[in-house]
């Protein structure tokens, strides 16, 4: 393919709005162009990469018996109302009205659509299990699109769905999909971890995220330093290893703490460590108010709080509600003498504390020598805090370390949530109606493309893995005005294409420095340069990653390229 005939605009300068390497390099190398915030066009070379990622995904999906289909991106609100997600999915769901004022959503995901299809078409257990998938653009109204392809409002996704006749069968479908995802990301050459995750707005339980390790990742992974355990920081449980001090409980007293607004301020003012204070935060959990109490040096994990109550929505209580219920602002909240309208729950670590400080529920005052179980009694103790580096690993092996990750895949055991809401049933072998059991499985294809660049680049440009590169060879004609160079380059281009080797032929009338810089930027694994020794039938072969180069006879190019791609 001749570069002079291709829409492949490269840039010398880094775009001002590109914060991370994948965004910078994909724009500079001519793979993508922004149309609006969070919305990108894939130029021809970018589309080639997408297709190669899609091909890997399709092959692994088909290996496990999943069949490709295509569903509409435009979805009627009636389906989302059946599942109840029209009101619970949140503001990220892009909603539109047609000319008849009928409500629609642009598909953020397709659980409702596929469930409606399967409930109408599958009536017998004999047709289960069923695995289907599609590769299609998705839409989410991100409040703050950023990082190029990593957080956009329109993105390419592979979504798959399983339908089974039992939870035992779902386990098998889930395991097949989990292994397929492992194969996909391994084939793509990514450094990734499968981590325990929260299902969020998807519903269901038992879910894993596939995280590509990267410093620019927006998610934090908690992993063991000696085992395979890994979890999203929101989901990692904390092992209970707290011992009470041998001190006797002292009499509680109230002290004035003027202008001390933070836990650190109060600890310094009262002369104790952060862990010797109680942190109390008010939440609205669905329709109830809950005060979550942790040790002063710990952070409340709202996902754990949500799961504790099996809640739909957990959000911080407003300042107005807090003052109405507690008579004080956020800075002086404490669990002693709490209104009956507020339930108090405490982290396991709190149970081991004695003679600590907390807010007095009066602006500018705190309590000293507070002992849980004596001065206040939570409704229950639970694992409510975020795990921290250095904590014991939840699997009992090693200690926890943190890494940042880019989520590229997510697998869910949905169970019967959608099937029950949308009446998706089948007849079992006894002729009795049963509810279908579902799974949902997604891969961010365009996001994976960005993750690949984050893990494969240097200071000159992208360094694509060999099996995913847009072309196998970048052929450069240094001076097309010279007949011997142009003729040899044309001949090599034809021979490479005839041999089935994907070649990008830079036949542009540009300076050598421009061609070399663009070649490094684009990142094709092998470069063949036709230059001054063209008359002798000698060309230069260079590896993009290692930088190793050698002069070879033009007649050996095909053999050398094929040998390199076999190793």
Automatic annotation (TrEMBL):
<comment type="function">
    <text>Catalyzes the attachment of proline to tRNA(Pro) in a two-step reaction: proline is first activated by ATP to form Pro-AMP and then transferred to the acceptor end of tRNA(Pro). As ProRS can inadvertently accommodate and process non-cognate amino acids such as alanine and cysteine, to avoid such errors it has two additional distinct editing activities against alanine. One activity is designated as 'pretransfer' editing and involves the tRNA(Pro)-independent hydrolysis of activated Ala-AMP.</text>
</comment>
<dbReference type="InterPro" id="IPR036621">
    <property type="entry name" value="Anticodon-bd_dom_sf"/>
</dbReference>
<keyword id="KW-0547">Nucleotide-binding</keyword>
<dbReference type="InterPro" id="IPR023717">
    <property type="entry name" value="Pro-tRNA-Synthase_IIa_type1"/>
</dbReference>
<keyword id="KW-0436">Ligase</keyword>
<keyword id="KW-0067">ATP-binding</keyword>
<dbReference type="InterPro" id="IPR004154">
    <property type="entry name" value="Anticodon-bd"/>
</dbReference>
<dbReference type="Pfam" id="PF00587">
    <property type="entry name" value="tRNA-synt_2b"/>
</dbReference>
<dbReference type="InterPro" id="IPR044140">
    <property type="entry name" value="ProRS_anticodon_short"/>
</dbReference>
<dbReference type="GO" id="GO:0004827">
    <property type="term" value="F:proline-tRNA ligase activity"/>
</dbReference>
<comment type="similarity">
    <text>Belongs to the class-II aminoacyl-tRNA synthetase family. ProS type 1 subfamily.</text>
</comment>
<feature type="domain" description="Aminoacyl-transfer RNA synthetases class-II family profile">
    <location>
        <begin position="33"/>
        <end position="465"/>
    </location>
</feature>
<dbReference type="Pfam" id="PF03129">
    <property type="entry name" value="HGTP_anticodon"/>
</dbReference>
<dbReference type="InterPro" id="IPR006195">
    <property type="entry name" value="aa-tRNA-synth_II"/>
</dbReference>
<keyword id="KW-0030">Aminoacyl-tRNA synthetase</keyword>
<dbReference type="InterPro" id="IPR045864">
    <property type="entry name" value="aa-tRNA-synth_II/BPL/LPL"/>
</dbReference>
<dbReference type="InterPro" id="IPR050062">
    <property type="entry name" value="Pro-tRNA_synthetase"/>
</dbReference>
<dbReference type="InterPro" id="IPR036754">
    <property type="entry name" value="YbaK/aa-tRNA-synt-asso_dom_sf"/>
</dbReference>
<keyword id="KW-0648">Protein biosynthesis</keyword>
<dbReference type="InterPro" id="IPR002316">
    <property type="entry name" value="Pro-tRNA-ligase_IIa"/>
</dbReference>
<dbReference type="InterPro" id="IPR033730">
    <property type="entry name" value="ProRS_core_prok"/>
</dbReference>
<protein>
    <recommendedName>
        <fullName>Proline--tRNA ligase</fullName>
        <ecNumber>6.1.1.15</ecNumber>
    </recommendedName>
</protein>
<dbReference type="InterPro" id="IPR004500">
    <property type="entry name" value="Pro-tRNA-synth_IIa_bac-type"/>
</dbReference>
<dbReference type="InterPro" id="IPR007214">
    <property type="entry name" value="YbaK/aa-tRNA-synth-assoc-dom"/>
</dbReference>
<dbReference type="InterPro" id="IPR002314">
    <property type="entry name" value="aa-tRNA-synt_IIb"/>
</dbReference>
<dbReference type="Pfam" id="PF04073">
    <property type="entry name" value="tRNA_edit"/>
</dbReference>
<comment type="subunit">
    <text>Homodimer.</text>
</comment>
<keyword id="KW-0963">Cytoplasm</keyword>
């Amino acid at each position: 393919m001749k570069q002079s005939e291709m829409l492949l605009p490269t840039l010398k300068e880094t775009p001002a709005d590109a914060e991370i390497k994948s965004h910078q390099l994909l724009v500079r190398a001519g793979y993508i162009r922004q149309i609006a915030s969070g919305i990108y066009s894939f130029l021809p070379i970018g589309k080639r990469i997408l297709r190669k990622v899609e091909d890997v995904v399709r092959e692994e999906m088909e290996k496990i018996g999943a069949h490709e289909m295509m569903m509409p991106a435009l979805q009627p609100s009636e389906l989302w109302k059946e599942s109840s997600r029209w009101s619970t999915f949140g503001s990220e769901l892009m909603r539109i009205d047609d000319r008849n004022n009928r409500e629609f959503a642009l598909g953020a995901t397709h659980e409702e659509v596929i469930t409606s299809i399967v409930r109408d078409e599958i009536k017998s257990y004999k047709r289960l299990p069923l695995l289907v998938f599609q590769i299609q653009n998705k839409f989410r109204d991100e409040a703050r699109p950023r990082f190029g392809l990593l957080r956009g409002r329109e993105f390419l996704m592979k979504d798959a769905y399983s339908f089974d006749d039992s939870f035992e069968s779902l386990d098998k479908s889930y395991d097949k999909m989990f292994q397929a995802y492992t194969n996909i990301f391994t084939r793509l050459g990514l450094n990734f971890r499968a981590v325990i995750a929260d299902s969020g707005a998807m519903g269901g339980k038992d879910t894993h995220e596939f995280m590509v390790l990267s410093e620019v990742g927006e998610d934090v992974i908690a992993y063991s330093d000696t085992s395979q355990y890994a979890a999203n920081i929101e989901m990692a449980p904390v092992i209970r290893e707290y011992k009470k001090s041998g001190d006797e409980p002292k009499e509680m007293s109230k002290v004035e703490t003027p202008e001390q607004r933070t836990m650190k301020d109060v600890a310094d003012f009262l002369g104790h460590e952060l862990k010797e204070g109680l942190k109390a935060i008010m939440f609205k959990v669905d329709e109830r108010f809950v005060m979550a109490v942790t040790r002063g040096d710990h952070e409340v994990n709202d996902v754990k709080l949500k799961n504790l109550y099996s809640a739909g929505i957990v959000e911080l209580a407003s300042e107005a509600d807090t003052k109405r219920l507690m008579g004080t602002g956020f800075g002086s909240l404490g669990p002693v003498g709490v209104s009956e309208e507020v339930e108090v729950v405490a982290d396991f670590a709190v149970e081991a504390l004695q003679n600590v400080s907390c807010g007095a529920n009066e602006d500018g005052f705190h309590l000293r020598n507070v002992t849980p179980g004596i001065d206040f009694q939570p409704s229950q103790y639970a694992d409510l805090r975020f795990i921290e580096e250095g904590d014991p690993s939840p699997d009992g092996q090693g200690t926890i370390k943190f890494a940042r990750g880019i989520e590229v895949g997510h697998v869910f055991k949905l169970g019967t949530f959608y099937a029950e809401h949308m009446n998706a049933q089948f007849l079992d072998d006894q002729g009795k109606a049963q509810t279908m059991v579902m799974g949902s499985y997604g891969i961010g294809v365009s996001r994976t493309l960005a993750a690949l660049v984050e893990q494969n680049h240097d200071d000159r440009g992208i360094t694509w893995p060999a099996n995913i590169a847009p072309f196998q060879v970048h052929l450069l004609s240094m001076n097309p005005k010279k007949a011997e160079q142009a003729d040899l380059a044309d001949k090599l281009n034809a021979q490479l294409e005839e041999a089935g080797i994907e070649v990008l032929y830079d036949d542009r009338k540009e300076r050598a420095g421009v061609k070399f810089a663009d070649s490094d930027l684009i990142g094709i694994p092998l470069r063949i340069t036709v230059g001054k020794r063209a008359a002798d039938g000698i060309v230069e072969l260079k590896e993009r990653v290692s930088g190793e180069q050698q002069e070879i006879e033009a007649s050996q190019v095909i053999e050398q390229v094929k040998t390199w791609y076999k190793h």
